[in-house]
Amino acid sequence: MDKIQIMKKREFETNAIRTQMERSSFLEHSSPVYLTSSFVFEDAEDMRASFAEEKDRNIYSRYSNPNSSEFIERVCKMEGAEDGFAFASGMAAVFNTFAALLESGDHLVSSRNIFGSTHSLLTQFLPKWKISHDYFGITATEEEIEALIRPETKMIYAESPTNPGVDILDLQLLGKLAKKHGILLVVDNCFASPYLQQPLKFGADLVIHSGTKLMDGQGRVLAGITVGSHELIDKIYRFSRITGPALSPFNAWILSRSLETLAVRVDRHCENALALAKFLEKHPKIKRVKYPFLPSHPQYKLAKKQMKAGGCVVAFEVEGGLKAGRRFFDAIRLLSLSANLGDTRSIVTHPASTTHSKLSPEERQETGITDGLVRVSVGLEHIEDIIADIAQALGEE
Ligand SMILES: *Cc1c(COP(=O)(O)O)cnc(C)c1O
To answer: Inter-axis angle of helices 383-393 and 321-331, to 10 degrees?
Structure first.
């Protein structure tokens, strides 16, 4: 809510770097960290007017802080959004967006292929407030999705590319359906990052990110953000400034610095990921490999239409199922076995036993998370070292 230098229309990279908070009296070049919980008032009238919202200024860091405002402003420029609110984690962004906009009795229509914790939120916790949902599968037709929309439906929710299967959803189609029925389309754009895909262009009303992934890009901080129109963000802001999921100023500062290198980092992530996907596609021990920018991907054309490049995640299945999968993980030397993604360090995970273990076997079947599925978040190490580690773990020295 503080004053941010208003820039003319510029390119993505320039906006990412040059959208900056006002300099302090020290005229620092790089933005400082404002580690302060509150802000002071000039006098009684200033205090009254500030609380009455007659002034656009910082009051308390649960509401706003110069560092979170700078982070928000940068992401808004990247996504082409009017406004946003920054959260302590991606899940705080997902939950507070739902909680601020949905009422008891409301219904949402969601892609079945969503982040594991979002799935738990929909199935275990939103029902406490009588908010129900119906899932549609990755291959659902327009008619099948539309048939799920009821008078109480207020929102369509989706992620693309999906986690961990990197399937692609048709955002324009979902946007069209949302518009036709006067409901919201909310897209979790975490896997693409704002550099590769801007869902608002395809008709989304709100875009959510876990800043923990490609935005930070170095596996250091948790963060989340929701961006969209002033009107919708105002509702989320009013709810969230009371419920208290605000992002720490320090983490916001880290993220704003990270965004300055997002474009160059993501370019290299995508280049490495495509090279790994091509290598795996020819490997005899690999049953199938999925990467949005491989021509063999079932939604290759759609991926090309929606995204600038394929992202950092490659999914593949090792020949031999669970047993072969475990052997593969135990043989990995360079890559990390970890649950994060979008990090400089390449990471391998086994979704069926980790991030998606809370899903029932039937649910895993429906979302294509087979026991042998491996997810690689391809990092920024030299591609030959990444490929060499995976090759040796597959049993090829
Ligand atoms: C990680 C992730 C989240 C949750 O973000 P946190 O920062 O871990 O809370 C939400 N959606 C997707 C697609 C994610 O990958």
So the answer is: 130
